[in-house]
Amino acid sequence: MRWLFLLLALSPPATAQETVIAAGTIRGATLIGPADVATVEGETPGALSDMAEAVGMEARINLYPGRPIRPGDLRPPAIVERNEIVSLRYDHGGLLIITDGRALDRAAQGEALRVINLASRQTVTAVALAPGLVTVGPQE
Question: What is the CATH number of the domain that holds 37?
Answer without folding.
Answer: 3.90.1210.10
